[in-house]
Amino acid sequence: MSVTQLIGTKREMSQLFNDDGTIVPVTIVEVGPCTVVQVKNAENDGYDAVQLGFGDIRLSRVSKPQKGHFKKAGVEPRRRLQEVRLSAPAAHKAGDVIKVSDVFKQGDWVDVIGTSKGRGYQGGVKRHGFAGGPAAHGTKFMREPGSSGTNTNIAHVRKGKRMAGHMGVDRITVRNLLVARVDEKRNLVFLRGAVPGFNGAAVTVRKAKAKTFAKADRALRKAAATAK
Fold first, then answer.
1. What is the 3-state secondary structure (H, E, C) of the chain?
2. pLDDT tens string 160-173
């Protein structure tokens, strides 16, 4: 079985133009090439999977155990490692290089998994979208969350109450993004829509698991086919 997801790096947002002049907002993601570092099977490991490596790294940054791991596979050290579960024995072996064109093509639907940007410590208005109090003269709770307790029967704040705190740095999965273009030479994928994380953040791009509506599918495929 071949892998259906690859490791990548978010580059930047841009836009493509259709023949009729309409703009298609896209996020450029560098996907692969990924090196197969290890292959696991149900007989020896209890499940089928492959370990993918992505990105260059200086040899001085690699620990001795990792050097032995890469040497055993006969590949150069990679910056990021990620294991991909498979439902059948892998069709790859250690040392194989998987390119973006081997997995994705223009018109495909994909899911992107990444880490959202860190926003630091934020209040309830920004973190949870609270309305806040009136902004008239004399008010002192314009951006405060209001009452957080219940009554004397409970006499404490319930667990899970939305309050101020650390915002961002969450694992985010954005589903059903259309592949508007694939640049095989530069290993780039142009995805219609936004991708979590900052420019340069690590992301995982996989084939979409959820189904899309047929009408929207046809419309977006047509837009991707006419994009320049």
1. CCCCEEEEEEEEEEEEECCCCCEEEEEEEEECCEEEEEEECHHHHCCEEEEEEECCCCHHHCCHHHHHHHHHHCCCCCCEEEEEEECCCCCCCCCCEECHHHCCCCCCEEEEEEECCCCEEECHHHHHCCCCCCCCCCCCCCCCCCCCCCCCCCCCCCCCCCCCEEECCCEEEEEEEEEEEEECCCCEEEEECCCCCCCCCEEEEEECCCCCCHHHHHHHHHHHHHCC
2. 899 999 999 999 99
Residue range 40-84, pLDDT digits in tens: 988 888 999 999 999 899 999 999 999 999 999 889 999 999 999
Q: In which residue ranges of the chain is CATH 3.30.160.810 found?
A: 34-98
Check: CATH 2.40.50.140 for 34-98? no
- pTM summary value: 0.81
The residue among 205, 167, 212, 210 whose CA lies nearest residue 188 is 205
CATH class of 1-32+100-118+168-228: mainly beta
User: What is the distance between the alpha carbons of residues 219 and 214, in angstroms, rounded to a whole number?
Assistant: 9
CA distance 69 to 47: 20
